[in-house]
Amino acid sequence: MTKRLISLMLALIMLLSLMLTSCSTTTEEEAEEESTTEEEVMRPNVGLTIYAVSEKKIDKAVMDAVEEKVSNYCVAKYKTSIKLQFYTEDEYENALNEQYKKFIAEAAAKEKAEAEAAAVSRSQAAERAKLKTNEEKIKFDQKIREQKRKQEEEAKKKAEAEAEKIAKGEDAVKWSEMDIIYIPNQEKYTEWIQNQKLVDLKTYLDNTYKKVRDYVYPTFMHAATVNGQVFGIPNNRGISTNETYLVLNTALVEKYNVDLSAVRSITDLEEAFAAVKAGEAGVTPIYGDFDPEGVVFYDEVDMAHSVGVFADTLVGGTKINETLGRPLNAGAKTNVAMLEYFETKADYRAKGYLSDTNENFFVSVQELNDEQKKEWEEKGYTLHLYKGAPVTSEAMFESGLFGISSYSKYPERAMEILTLMTTDAELHNLLTFGIEEEHYIVSAENENVITRLNDDYSMNFFKTGNSLLGYVPDDMDPDYVEKAKQKNLNSFISPFFGFEMDDWTADDKHKEWVETKLPVWKAYLDPIYEQLCYGIPNWKEVLTEVYANLNTNANGMFEEITLQNFMDMCVLDDKYKSHAPKIKALKESLGTSDMTEVVEEVTTTTTTTKAATTTTAPATTTTKAN
After folding, report:
1. Smaller CB count within 10 Å for the chain: N or C?
2. For the segment 455-468, what is each residue's pLDDT rounded down to a tens digit?
3. DSSP characters for 387-411?
């Protein structure tokens, strides 16, 4: 009887479209306890629709077969049927927009029906007002009540019938047409949040579904957090940006007993440089350029290039907090990494430690992808991690996210399935690779590796959920998962994480400045920066002259182009107000008074010369690429 009453209540709620959509605050332990036989009986059958992208258009028969497997799996878990709507990238947003049009039409129809019902109610009230006697009004009211009673009885009978079906597990699936949707990039993530197309998942993630956070690298979740809210679960993966390595001559490392475990900066190898220079004819200690340890360059933003690097240079770069793995917000007087770098480069160049040819070297600093790492190792070189992969906004959203549509009829059910996509290897394998023996087979040598039999079911490995869960395709490193996890742990957060300067460069408001004044500034700075990175002996004097020109425009060379002006141009419109704290911090770190103090600390004189100091680097200068 209890089951029947509870089932009746559920059916009535569904019939009246009053199902609760708020997030449950039940703990994981309590949720598991509720997964009893009685809960399964009471639980109504619903259907959810997942929208995602495929590498190519998938044949309907193939799609139907995979959809059946996915749906059966989710029905067995949660009595939740699944419909898959997969489109190629060029078709995807149009498909969403077509569905949005249907929702808008349905909302308009509902509004019209409500308006008509209100009109009927007003008509009845007007009709009653025309009645002259109480007897006539009483008869009229009885008639209206009788109509309502019949409607309520009919609804009750339907609810009872539905309750019986739910209790027996025979209820028809109630479908929702858009529930879990793929979000392709940061731009769409921001746009869809602003347009209220996504459900805030934070309460879910903080309570019943908090285990999602255990499966997704925290920095990805941090990137998905907007003003304290989370509207999507990033597709978990190894960070796609490259790590930087010391590429070392293995024989010389062994010969000179170099303890790499103690090496954190290239300066830690100075004793080895001196030994190699003295004892190895024809071998140069260092080949090519190198970044100073602990410096993150501002020209990750393409538009800024050396202009931004100079802004960073003039405050001495950014020291990395080794414990936190992110930059310290210390005053400019303590941030002298770039100045130390210019001095070190000049010193190494003078001692003959640097070479611009790649033959017979002891060490080279290289940013390497997996293929390049393999090539160096096959050549017999030793690789030592020098700098972890930078965590950039672009890298965090490269594989997209999955969120819950604000049009979902059953958002909590959708959160169940979204959690499953993130934490359950079997479902992830189905969505990523399709059906075993039809679309892929498991390797006989490695149970975690699969070989695709065909491309009938063609999905991007990184865009179907948590790529650190389940199988790995045979065209990837079989140890991808463990290596990716370690790479994430080695990574560091860029100080410009979430700060997109190129947003404003395309703005008409800044067009003239970007097209006319920025090139003048770059033309002046590019060759000077190249000289400083090459290792010119009079770097202090050159840098001092740059201060004079960019901070005070003493020679009137650049009109309104000063560092402060450059930063003022970075003030974004209201739609980018979430970046305001980053902009403020960046502007404070680039204060002109602080810059002057830094220069006065490292130069032998506090006076700046009026005439520009120029030194031409040798023709073999290697352009710095950061």
Report:
1. N
2. 999 999 999 999 99
3. EPPEE-HHHHTTT-EEEEBTT-S-H
